[in-house]
Amino acid sequence: MRRSPTPAPLPDEALTPGAKYRQQRAARRQRAGRADSIDELVGRRQRSVWHEHRTSWLLAVLFVCGFVPFALIVSADQTIHHVADRRIGPPERLGPAQVAIVLGARTDGLDHPSPALTARLDGGLDLLRRGRVFKLLLTGNGRTSTEPEAMRRYALAHGARPEDVFVDPDGSDTFRSLDRARAIYGVRTAVLVSERHHVERAVYLAEQLGIVVWGSPSDTSTAPPSFRERLTWVKALFTGLVANP
């Protein structure tokens, strides 16, 4: 039995307004369905690639996050020790130098030097009495504390002459203190006084600035540097690389 031919669609002008609207809406839905299907296929493919390589990507991220900081710490440790070990020693083997730069630390809250700062000041005064340095340069952050003035009072109270004591109240960090000592106070040779791990970093920075420098530890600790101190060495490594004397 022969099928009757499918009637041809009516031309648009023969459709009623309602029929024309329904036809246009059906066409839009059909196009949107095709687009949704393509997007869905692409999304499934992307999810498949992620699941297939997820373990490799996670391992790569963990490797980078773990190895890079470790490599930086080891590099900073070796570089700073290579420089500092040649320049640090007991007072009688240091200098002679223009100044002893005593790097600041916190006061005790009553405008008196803390025990750590007192040990640094005593180290600087000892160098001055031995004749290993000719002046004291006391550096600290005078903008937010009375640290530099407390250091000056302590030095004068323990035998230093006023004409031998200079104070830099804008030494907000180690690098700034050393850079200002060179650029503003004309320091070319110096003995740096601070705790062992701090003075190692300071010696490295001073050498990068072109200062002939020695280091005098104000403590006798043989403990390895803390993780925080090692991070400051990484910062010092990059700071020294961009230093421009």
Structure, described:
The protein is α/β, with parallel strands linked by helices and 245 residues long. It contains 6 helices and 5 strands; from the N terminus they run H-E-H-E-H-E-H-E-H-E-H. It has helices at residues 17-84, 115-130, 147-157, 174-183, 196-208, 227-242; strands at residues 97-103, 133-139, 165-168, 189-194, 212-217. The chain has a 5-stranded parallel beta sheet with strand order 3-2-1-4-5, with helices on both faces.
Measured by DSSP, the beta-strand proportion falls in 5-15%
Helix and strand pattern? HEHEHEHEHEH
Number of strands: 5
Mean of residue pLDDT values: 80
Which spans have pLDDT < 50 for at least 5 consecutive residues? none
Structural class: alpha/beta
The helicity comes to 40-55%
Individual helix count: 6
Order of strands, main sheet, comes to 3-2-1-4-5
Quaternary state of the chains: single chain
Q: Tell me, what's the shape?
A: elongated
Largest sheet: 5 strands, parallel
- Gyration radius over CA: 36 Å
In angstroms, what separates the terminal alpha carbons?
Answer: 102 Å
